Amino acid sequence: MVDAILNKFYRPSRFKKNGDVKDVFVVALPMLLSMSFDTLMTFIDRLFLSKLGPAEMNAALGAGAVQLALTMFFTGAISYTTAMVAQRLGGKKRWDCGRVFMQAVYLSLISVPLLYLTIPLGHFVFGMEHLPADQLQYQKTYFNILMFGGIINLVRNAAPCFFSGIGETKIVMKAAFVGMLVNVACNFVLIYGLGPIPALGVAGAAYGTLIGNLVSTVILFAKFWGKSCHKRFRTRYAFAFSWPLTKELLQKGIPSGVEMCLNMTAFQLLILMFHALGPESATAASVMFNWDMVAYVPLMGLEVASTSLVGRYVGARDGAAATRSTYSGVKLGWWYSLIIGVLFIFLPGVLTDIFRPDAAEASAEALAIFDAARPMSIFMLRFATLYIFVEVLLVIYAGALRGAGDTLWVMFACAIMNWCVAGTLYVAAYVLHLPAHYAWIALVAIYSTAPVLFWWRWKSGKWRRHVLDKNF
After folding, report:
1. Which of 9, 22, 244, 377 is the most exposed place for a label (fewest CB within 10 A)?
2. Which residues contact 292 (CB under 8 A, 6 or more apart)?
3. Residue 265 near residue 69 (C-beta atoms within 8 A)
4. 164, 87 in Cβ contact below 8 A?
Protein backbone atom coordinates (compact mmCIF):
# COMPACT_ATOMS: atom_id res chain seq x y z
CA MET A 1 0.00 0.00 0.00
CA VAL A 2 2.77 2.42 0.95
CA ASP A 3 4.69 1.49 -2.21
CA ALA A 4 1.61 2.21 -4.33
CA ILE A 5 1.22 5.66 -2.78
CA LEU A 6 4.90 6.52 -3.10
CA ASN A 7 5.19 5.27 -6.67
CA LYS A 8 2.59 7.79 -7.74
CA PHE A 9 4.57 10.59 -6.13
CA TYR A 10 7.86 9.36 -7.60
CA ARG A 11 6.78 10.10 -11.17
CA PRO A 12 8.81 13.13 -12.28
CA SER A 13 5.82 14.69 -14.00
CA ARG A 14 4.04 14.92 -10.70
CA PHE A 15 6.55 17.43 -9.30
CA LYS A 16 5.75 21.05 -9.94
CA LYS A 17 9.00 22.32 -8.45
CA ASN A 18 11.99 20.89 -6.68
CA GLY A 19 11.39 21.12 -2.95
CA ASP A 20 7.57 21.15 -3.08
CA VAL A 21 5.37 19.34 -0.56
CA LYS A 22 5.29 16.12 -2.60
CA ASP A 23 9.07 16.14 -2.82
CA VAL A 24 9.33 16.25 0.98
CA PHE A 25 6.52 13.74 1.46
CA VAL A 26 8.20 11.09 -0.69
CA VAL A 27 11.33 11.14 1.46
CA ALA A 28 9.61 11.71 4.80
CA LEU A 29 6.86 9.04 4.76
CA PRO A 30 9.12 5.96 4.64
CA MET A 31 11.40 7.46 7.31
CA LEU A 32 8.35 8.20 9.45
CA LEU A 33 7.23 4.58 9.18
CA SER A 34 10.71 3.13 9.77
CA MET A 35 11.09 5.16 12.97
CA SER A 36 7.60 4.11 14.02
CA PHE A 37 8.64 0.47 13.58
CA ASP A 38 11.63 1.09 15.87
CA THR A 39 9.33 2.67 18.44
CA LEU A 40 6.90 -0.26 18.21
CA MET A 41 9.78 -2.71 18.58
CA THR A 42 10.84 -1.02 21.83
CA PHE A 43 7.24 -0.97 23.08
CA ILE A 44 6.81 -4.71 22.45
CA ASP A 45 10.09 -5.43 24.26
CA ARG A 46 8.77 -3.66 27.34
CA LEU A 47 5.39 -5.37 27.01
CA PHE A 48 6.92 -8.85 26.95
CA LEU A 49 9.14 -8.06 29.93
CA SER A 50 6.21 -6.59 31.89
CA LYS A 51 4.70 -10.09 31.99
CA LEU A 52 7.73 -11.24 33.99
CA GLY A 53 7.42 -8.45 36.53
CA PRO A 54 7.89 -4.71 37.03
CA ALA A 55 11.57 -5.08 37.94
CA GLU A 56 12.40 -6.58 34.54
CA MET A 57 10.41 -3.97 32.61
CA ASN A 58 11.83 -1.05 34.61
CA ALA A 59 15.35 -2.41 34.24
CA ALA A 60 15.06 -2.49 30.45
CA LEU A 61 13.66 1.03 30.41
CA GLY A 62 16.40 2.45 32.67
CA ALA A 63 19.25 0.60 30.98
CA GLY A 64 17.97 1.49 27.52
CA ALA A 65 17.85 5.19 28.37
CA VAL A 66 21.45 5.24 29.64
CA GLN A 67 22.67 3.17 26.69
CA LEU A 68 21.01 5.63 24.31
CA ALA A 69 22.59 8.60 26.06
CA LEU A 70 26.08 7.07 25.91
CA THR A 71 25.83 6.14 22.22
CA MET A 72 24.15 9.37 21.12
CA PHE A 73 27.45 11.20 20.54
CA PHE A 74 28.70 8.51 18.14
CA THR A 75 25.41 8.01 16.29
CA GLY A 76 24.85 11.77 16.08
CA ALA A 77 28.28 12.36 14.58
CA ILE A 78 27.85 9.59 12.03
CA SER A 79 24.36 10.79 11.09
CA TYR A 80 25.89 13.73 9.19
CA THR A 81 26.56 11.13 6.49
CA THR A 82 23.02 11.82 5.25
CA ALA A 83 23.86 15.45 4.44
CA MET A 84 27.24 14.62 2.86
CA VAL A 85 25.74 11.95 0.61
CA ALA A 86 22.91 14.29 -0.40
CA GLN A 87 25.38 17.08 -1.20
CA ARG A 88 27.43 14.80 -3.47
CA LEU A 89 24.29 13.57 -5.18
CA GLY A 90 23.15 17.14 -5.83
CA GLY A 91 26.64 18.04 -7.06
CA LYS A 92 26.50 15.16 -9.58
CA LYS A 93 29.38 13.33 -7.89
CA ARG A 94 27.59 10.02 -7.53
CA TRP A 95 30.71 7.94 -7.08
CA ASP A 96 31.54 9.87 -3.93
CA CYS A 97 28.19 8.94 -2.33
CA GLY A 98 29.24 5.36 -1.64
CA ARG A 99 32.71 6.46 -0.54
CA VAL A 100 31.21 8.83 2.04
CA PHE A 101 29.09 6.03 3.44
CA MET A 102 32.07 3.67 3.78
CA GLN A 103 33.97 6.32 5.73
CA ALA A 104 31.00 6.41 8.12
CA VAL A 105 31.21 2.62 8.48
CA TYR A 106 34.92 2.84 9.26
CA LEU A 107 34.29 5.53 11.87
CA SER A 108 31.57 3.35 13.40
CA LEU A 109 34.03 0.48 13.77
CA ILE A 110 36.73 2.74 15.22
CA SER A 111 34.22 4.14 17.74
CA VAL A 112 33.38 0.74 19.25
CA PRO A 113 36.39 0.59 21.66
CA LEU A 114 35.61 4.15 22.78
CA LEU A 115 32.01 3.11 23.42
CA TYR A 116 33.21 0.19 25.55
CA LEU A 117 35.14 2.61 27.75
CA THR A 118 31.84 4.26 28.77
CA ILE A 119 30.40 1.03 30.27
CA PRO A 120 31.74 1.76 33.79
CA LEU A 121 30.08 5.18 33.59
CA GLY A 122 26.74 3.47 33.01
CA HIS A 123 27.28 1.25 36.03
CA PHE A 124 28.16 4.32 38.09
CA VAL A 125 24.88 5.98 37.10
CA PHE A 126 22.94 2.86 38.10
CA GLY A 127 24.64 2.86 41.48
CA MET A 128 23.51 6.43 42.13
CA GLU A 129 19.86 5.52 41.52
CA HIS A 130 19.56 3.35 44.67
CA LEU A 131 17.67 0.66 42.78
CA PRO A 132 16.31 -2.55 44.32
CA ALA A 133 18.87 -5.37 44.12
CA ASP A 134 16.91 -7.43 41.58
CA GLN A 135 16.28 -4.48 39.25
CA LEU A 136 19.92 -3.39 39.48
CA GLN A 137 21.11 -6.83 38.40
CA TYR A 138 18.64 -6.97 35.52
CA GLN A 139 19.58 -3.46 34.48
CA LYS A 140 23.29 -4.22 34.36
CA THR A 141 22.65 -7.39 32.36
CA TYR A 142 20.52 -5.63 29.74
CA PHE A 143 22.92 -2.68 29.56
CA ASN A 144 26.06 -4.80 29.21
CA ILE A 145 24.65 -6.89 26.36
CA LEU A 146 23.55 -3.84 24.39
CA MET A 147 26.83 -2.03 24.97
CA PHE A 148 29.02 -5.02 24.02
CA GLY A 149 26.86 -5.37 20.94
CA GLY A 150 27.65 -1.74 20.15
CA ILE A 151 29.29 -2.63 16.84
CA ILE A 152 25.88 -3.76 15.57
CA ASN A 153 24.07 -0.70 16.89
CA LEU A 154 26.59 1.81 15.51
CA VAL A 155 26.80 0.28 12.04
CA ARG A 156 23.03 -0.13 12.04
CA ASN A 157 22.60 3.59 12.66
CA ALA A 158 25.04 4.43 9.88
CA ALA A 159 23.45 2.12 7.31
CA PRO A 160 20.25 4.14 6.63
CA CYS A 161 22.23 7.37 6.11
CA PHE A 162 23.27 6.48 2.56
CA PHE A 163 19.71 5.78 1.44
CA SER A 164 18.32 8.83 3.26
CA GLY A 165 20.95 10.94 1.51
CA ILE A 166 20.00 9.73 -1.97
CA GLY A 167 16.29 10.02 -1.12
CA GLU A 168 15.51 6.30 -1.45
CA THR A 169 14.01 5.84 2.01
CA LYS A 170 11.63 2.99 1.11
CA ILE A 171 14.40 0.43 1.59
CA VAL A 172 15.07 1.87 5.07
CA MET A 173 11.39 1.41 5.90
CA LYS A 174 11.36 -2.19 4.62
CA ALA A 175 14.55 -3.11 6.50
CA ALA A 176 13.16 -1.63 9.72
CA PHE A 177 9.93 -3.57 9.28
CA VAL A 178 11.73 -6.89 8.77
CA GLY A 179 14.04 -6.13 11.70
CA MET A 180 11.02 -5.44 13.89
CA LEU A 181 9.39 -8.78 12.98
CA VAL A 182 12.63 -10.67 13.67
CA ASN A 183 13.05 -8.82 16.96
CA VAL A 184 9.52 -9.67 18.12
CA ALA A 185 9.93 -13.36 17.22
CA CYS A 186 13.36 -13.62 18.86
CA ASN A 187 12.19 -11.82 21.98
CA PHE A 188 9.23 -14.14 22.43
CA VAL A 189 11.46 -17.21 22.14
CA LEU A 190 14.45 -15.90 24.09
CA ILE A 191 12.53 -14.18 26.90
CA TYR A 192 10.08 -17.01 27.65
CA GLY A 193 11.98 -19.97 26.22
CA LEU A 194 10.77 -22.51 23.67
CA GLY A 195 11.63 -26.22 23.44
CA PRO A 196 15.37 -26.65 23.96
CA ILE A 197 15.91 -22.89 24.13
CA PRO A 198 15.96 -21.77 27.78
CA ALA A 199 14.10 -18.71 29.05
CA LEU A 200 16.66 -15.89 29.25
CA GLY A 201 14.38 -13.12 30.53
CA VAL A 202 15.97 -9.66 30.34
CA ALA A 203 19.07 -11.03 28.61
CA GLY A 204 16.81 -12.54 25.94
CA ALA A 205 15.24 -9.15 25.27
CA ALA A 206 18.69 -7.60 24.76
CA TYR A 207 19.83 -10.40 22.46
CA GLY A 208 16.58 -10.14 20.49
CA THR A 209 17.15 -6.42 19.96
CA LEU A 210 20.66 -7.02 18.65
CA ILE A 211 19.50 -9.80 16.31
CA GLY A 212 16.71 -7.61 14.90
CA ASN A 213 19.15 -4.74 14.35
CA LEU A 214 21.65 -7.09 12.69
CA VAL A 215 19.03 -8.36 10.23
CA SER A 216 17.92 -4.87 9.20
CA THR A 217 21.59 -3.87 8.77
CA VAL A 218 22.33 -6.88 6.54
CA ILE A 219 19.35 -5.98 4.34
CA LEU A 220 20.62 -2.42 3.86
CA PHE A 221 24.17 -3.55 3.07
CA ALA A 222 22.85 -6.14 0.60
CA LYS A 223 20.99 -3.34 -1.15
CA PHE A 224 24.04 -1.06 -1.01
CA TRP A 225 26.22 -3.64 -2.76
CA GLY A 226 23.40 -4.82 -5.01
CA LYS A 227 23.32 -4.43 -8.76
CA SER A 228 21.13 -1.28 -8.93
CA CYS A 229 23.14 0.71 -6.37
CA HIS A 230 26.44 -0.41 -7.85
CA LYS A 231 25.34 0.67 -11.30
CA ARG A 232 24.47 4.17 -10.10
CA PHE A 233 27.11 4.74 -7.42
CA ARG A 234 29.88 2.13 -7.98
CA THR A 235 29.34 0.95 -4.40
CA ARG A 236 31.48 -2.19 -4.83
CA TYR A 237 34.47 0.05 -5.49
CA ALA A 238 33.87 2.35 -2.52
CA PHE A 239 36.08 0.58 0.03
CA ALA A 240 39.11 2.88 -0.18
CA PHE A 241 39.78 5.03 2.85
CA SER A 242 39.58 8.79 2.13
CA TRP A 243 41.04 11.19 4.65
CA PRO A 244 39.43 14.31 3.07
CA LEU A 245 35.96 12.74 3.31
CA THR A 246 36.61 11.42 6.81
CA LYS A 247 37.92 14.80 7.92
CA GLU A 248 34.80 16.56 6.62
CA LEU A 249 32.57 13.98 8.32
CA LEU A 250 34.39 14.55 11.61
CA GLN A 251 34.39 18.35 11.31
CA LYS A 252 30.68 18.55 10.52
CA GLY A 253 29.53 15.41 12.34
CA ILE A 254 31.13 15.94 15.75
CA PRO A 255 29.06 19.09 16.41
CA SER A 256 25.93 17.05 15.60
CA GLY A 257 27.07 14.31 17.96
CA VAL A 258 27.81 16.77 20.77
CA GLU A 259 24.47 18.47 20.15
CA MET A 260 22.46 15.23 20.37
CA CYS A 261 24.36 14.08 23.45
CA LEU A 262 23.72 17.38 25.24
CA ASN A 263 20.08 17.36 24.14
CA MET A 264 19.51 13.85 25.45
CA THR A 265 21.23 14.68 28.74
CA ALA A 266 19.08 17.79 29.19
CA PHE A 267 15.92 15.82 28.39
CA GLN A 268 16.83 13.13 30.92
CA LEU A 269 17.40 15.89 33.47
CA LEU A 270 13.91 17.26 32.81
CA ILE A 271 12.39 13.87 33.51
CA LEU A 272 14.42 13.44 36.71
CA MET A 273 13.39 16.88 38.00
CA PHE A 274 9.71 16.20 37.34
CA HIS A 275 9.98 12.81 39.04
CA ALA A 276 11.68 14.35 42.08
CA LEU A 277 8.64 16.57 42.67
CA GLY A 278 6.63 13.62 43.96
CA PRO A 279 4.66 10.63 42.65
CA GLU A 280 1.73 12.72 41.35
CA SER A 281 3.99 15.06 39.38
CA ALA A 282 6.06 12.12 38.17
CA THR A 283 2.95 10.33 36.91
CA ALA A 284 1.57 13.41 35.14
CA ALA A 285 4.94 14.15 33.52
CA SER A 286 5.38 10.53 32.45
CA VAL A 287 2.02 10.53 30.70
CA MET A 288 2.88 13.84 29.03
CA PHE A 289 6.33 12.76 27.84
CA ASN A 290 5.05 9.39 26.63
CA TRP A 291 2.58 11.13 24.34
CA ASP A 292 5.22 13.70 23.40
CA MET A 293 7.44 10.88 22.12
CA VAL A 294 4.53 9.45 20.11
CA ALA A 295 3.95 12.88 18.58
CA TYR A 296 7.65 13.49 17.97
CA VAL A 297 8.50 10.31 16.02
CA PRO A 298 6.86 11.42 12.73
CA LEU A 299 8.60 14.78 13.01
CA MET A 300 11.93 12.95 13.02
CA GLY A 301 11.01 11.64 9.57
CA LEU A 302 10.43 15.21 8.43
CA GLU A 303 13.74 16.24 9.95
CA VAL A 304 15.61 13.57 7.98
CA ALA A 305 13.76 14.61 4.80
CA SER A 306 14.69 18.24 5.42
CA THR A 307 18.37 17.36 5.93
CA SER A 308 18.44 15.14 2.85
CA LEU A 309 16.68 17.51 0.46
CA VAL A 310 18.46 20.66 1.59
CA GLY A 311 21.79 18.82 1.32
CA ARG A 312 20.92 17.69 -2.20
CA TYR A 313 19.88 21.16 -3.41
CA VAL A 314 22.85 22.81 -1.72
CA GLY A 315 25.09 20.37 -3.59
CA ALA A 316 23.29 21.34 -6.81
CA ARG A 317 23.77 25.07 -6.00
CA ASP A 318 19.98 25.50 -5.98
CA GLY A 319 19.35 27.73 -2.97
CA ALA A 320 15.76 28.43 -4.02
CA ALA A 321 14.86 24.72 -3.99
CA ALA A 322 16.60 24.28 -0.62
CA THR A 323 14.48 27.09 0.83
CA ARG A 324 11.33 25.74 -0.80
CA SER A 325 11.86 22.24 0.63
CA THR A 326 12.26 23.75 4.10
CA TYR A 327 8.98 25.65 3.88
CA SER A 328 7.29 22.53 2.49
CA GLY A 329 8.48 20.58 5.51
CA VAL A 330 6.99 23.20 7.81
CA LYS A 331 3.64 22.94 6.01
CA LEU A 332 3.53 19.16 6.34
CA GLY A 333 4.59 19.39 9.98
CA TRP A 334 1.85 21.85 10.81
CA TRP A 335 -0.82 19.69 9.19
CA TYR A 336 0.38 16.79 11.30
CA SER A 337 0.53 18.97 14.43
CA LEU A 338 -3.03 20.11 13.80
CA ILE A 339 -4.20 16.50 14.08
CA ILE A 340 -2.18 15.94 17.26
CA GLY A 341 -3.39 19.27 18.65
CA VAL A 342 -7.04 18.25 18.19
CA LEU A 343 -6.38 15.04 20.14
CA PHE A 344 -4.52 16.88 22.90
CA ILE A 345 -7.19 19.55 23.28
CA PHE A 346 -10.35 17.49 23.00
CA LEU A 347 -9.31 14.01 24.20
CA PRO A 348 -6.70 14.53 26.93
CA GLY A 349 -8.72 12.49 29.41
CA VAL A 350 -8.87 9.52 27.07
CA LEU A 351 -5.14 9.77 26.36
CA THR A 352 -4.38 9.95 30.07
CA ASP A 353 -6.63 7.05 31.04
CA ILE A 354 -4.75 4.70 28.70
CA PHE A 355 -2.06 4.68 31.41
CA ARG A 356 -4.51 4.03 34.26
CA PRO A 357 -3.37 1.09 36.42
CA ASP A 358 -5.43 -2.08 36.30
CA ALA A 359 -7.87 -1.87 39.21
CA ALA A 360 -7.66 -5.63 39.74
CA GLU A 361 -3.88 -5.68 39.91
CA ALA A 362 -2.78 -2.28 41.24
CA SER A 363 -2.76 -1.24 44.87
CA ALA A 364 -5.13 1.35 46.30
CA GLU A 365 -2.18 3.70 46.71
CA ALA A 366 -1.23 3.44 43.03
CA LEU A 367 -4.81 4.17 41.95
CA ALA A 368 -4.97 7.16 44.32
CA ILE A 369 -1.73 8.59 42.89
CA PHE A 370 -3.03 8.25 39.35
CA ASP A 371 -6.36 9.89 40.21
CA ALA A 372 -4.50 12.80 41.84
CA ALA A 373 -2.21 13.18 38.82
CA ARG A 374 -4.98 12.91 36.20
CA PRO A 375 -6.14 16.59 36.25
CA MET A 376 -2.53 17.74 36.10
CA SER A 377 -1.82 15.45 33.16
CA ILE A 378 -4.90 16.68 31.27
CA PHE A 379 -3.80 20.28 31.76
CA MET A 380 -0.26 19.54 30.58
CA LEU A 381 -1.49 17.70 27.48
CA ARG A 382 -3.75 20.56 26.45
CA PHE A 383 -1.03 23.13 26.94
CA ALA A 384 1.36 20.90 24.99
CA THR A 385 -0.57 21.74 21.81
CA LEU A 386 1.50 24.94 21.58
CA TYR A 387 4.61 22.89 22.29
CA ILE A 388 3.91 20.54 19.36
CA PHE A 389 3.44 23.38 16.86
CA VAL A 390 6.66 25.02 18.04
CA GLU A 391 8.50 21.71 17.82
CA VAL A 392 7.75 21.55 14.08
CA LEU A 393 9.66 24.77 13.43
CA LEU A 394 12.57 23.66 15.55
CA VAL A 395 12.88 20.22 13.92
CA ILE A 396 12.54 21.41 10.32
CA TYR A 397 14.90 24.38 10.54
CA ALA A 398 17.48 22.41 12.54
CA GLY A 399 17.36 19.62 9.94
CA ALA A 400 17.65 22.13 7.09
CA LEU A 401 20.66 23.85 8.65
CA ARG A 402 22.36 20.49 9.20
CA GLY A 403 21.73 19.62 5.56
CA ALA A 404 23.41 22.89 4.59
CA GLY A 405 26.43 22.02 6.74
CA ASP A 406 25.75 24.62 9.43
CA THR A 407 26.15 22.03 12.19
CA LEU A 408 28.35 24.05 14.56
CA TRP A 409 25.75 26.81 14.91
CA VAL A 410 22.97 24.22 15.39
CA MET A 411 25.03 22.53 18.10
CA PHE A 412 25.45 25.71 20.16
CA ALA A 413 21.87 26.86 19.59
CA CYS A 414 20.30 23.51 20.55
CA ALA A 415 22.55 23.07 23.58
CA ILE A 416 21.79 26.57 24.88
CA MET A 417 18.07 26.10 24.26
CA ASN A 418 17.76 22.71 25.99
CA TRP A 419 19.81 23.68 29.00
CA CYS A 420 17.91 26.96 29.35
CA VAL A 421 14.70 24.92 29.37
CA ALA A 422 16.15 22.64 32.08
CA GLY A 423 17.22 25.70 34.08
CA THR A 424 13.76 27.21 33.70
CA LEU A 425 12.16 24.09 35.15
CA TYR A 426 14.58 24.13 38.08
CA VAL A 427 13.84 27.77 38.89
CA ALA A 428 10.07 27.37 38.50
CA ALA A 429 9.75 24.13 40.44
CA TYR A 430 12.58 24.24 42.98
CA VAL A 431 13.21 27.96 43.56
CA LEU A 432 9.74 29.43 43.09
CA HIS A 433 8.09 26.15 44.23
CA LEU A 434 5.41 26.26 41.55
CA PRO A 435 3.22 23.17 41.01
CA ALA A 436 4.36 20.88 38.21
CA HIS A 437 1.71 22.01 35.74
CA TYR A 438 2.61 25.69 36.24
CA ALA A 439 6.29 24.82 35.88
CA TRP A 440 5.30 23.15 32.59
CA ILE A 441 3.83 26.49 31.41
CA ALA A 442 7.13 28.23 32.10
CA LEU A 443 9.04 25.48 30.33
CA VAL A 444 6.89 25.65 27.18
CA ALA A 445 7.04 29.46 27.18
CA ILE A 446 10.85 29.46 27.12
CA TYR A 447 10.98 26.61 24.61
CA SER A 448 8.64 28.50 22.28
CA THR A 449 11.14 31.30 21.79
CA ALA A 450 13.87 28.98 20.44
CA PRO A 451 12.50 28.45 16.90
CA VAL A 452 12.75 32.19 16.32
CA LEU A 453 16.54 31.85 16.47
CA PHE A 454 16.56 28.97 13.97
CA TRP A 455 14.21 30.81 11.63
CA TRP A 456 16.40 33.91 11.87
CA ARG A 457 19.52 31.88 11.10
CA TRP A 458 17.86 30.40 8.03
CA LYS A 459 16.49 33.75 6.82
CA SER A 460 19.85 35.44 7.37
CA GLY A 461 21.25 33.39 4.50
CA LYS A 462 24.59 32.79 6.22
CA TRP A 463 24.31 29.11 5.38
CA ARG A 464 24.24 30.09 1.68
CA ARG A 465 27.54 31.95 1.87
CA HIS A 466 28.94 29.11 3.91
CA VAL A 467 28.18 26.25 1.51
CA LEU A 468 26.87 27.30 -1.89
CA ASP A 469 30.29 28.42 -3.07
CA LYS A 470 31.98 25.21 -1.90
CA ASN A 471 33.24 22.67 -4.39
CA PHE A 472 31.86 19.37 -3.12
Report:
1. 244
2. 384, 387, 388
3. yes
4. no
Domain boundary among 241, 260, 287: 241
Report the C-alpha gap between 256 and 406 in whole angstroms: 10
CA-based end-to-end distance of the chain: 37
Residue 113 neighbours by CB distance under 10 Å: 10
List the domain range (segments joined by +) for residue 413. Answer: 252-472
Reported pTM: 0.70
Task: Please name the amino acid found at residue 425.
Answer: L
> 447 and 320, same structural domain?
yes
Judgement on whether residues 288 and 410 belong to the same structural domain of the protein: yes
Which residues, 6+ apart, have CB-to-CB distance to 180 below 8 Å?
Answer: 37, 38, 40, 41, 212
Query: Strand, helix or coil at 132?
Result: coil
SS3 129: coil
3-state secondary structure of 20: coil
* Calpha distance 317→143 (Å, rounded): 45
145 against 410, higher pLDDT:
145
Task: Kindly provide the residue ranges of all beta strands, DSSP E only, lying in 94-163, ordered along the sequence.
Answer: none
- Rounded distance, CA 444 to CA 439, Å? 9
Please indicate, yes or no, whether residues 191 and 280 belong to a single structural domain of this protein.
no
Instruction: Give 342-346 contacts, CB < 8 A, sequence gap 24+.
Output: 344/291, 344/381, 344/382, 344/384, 344/385, 344/388, 345/382, 345/385
DSSP 11: S
pLDDT band of residue 14 (cuts 50, 70, 90) is very low
Q: What pLDDT was estimated at residue 15? A: 37
Q: Are 186 and 290 within one domain?
A: no
pLDDT tens-digit map of 379-437: 888 888 877 787 888 888 887 887 777 777 877 888 888 888 888 888 888 888 888 87
Strand partners, 27: none
* Phi/psi of residue 225, nearest 5 degrees: -95, 5
Q: How many domains does the chain have?
A: 2
The pLDDT value recorded for residue 53 is 62
**211 secondary structure, DSSP code:** H
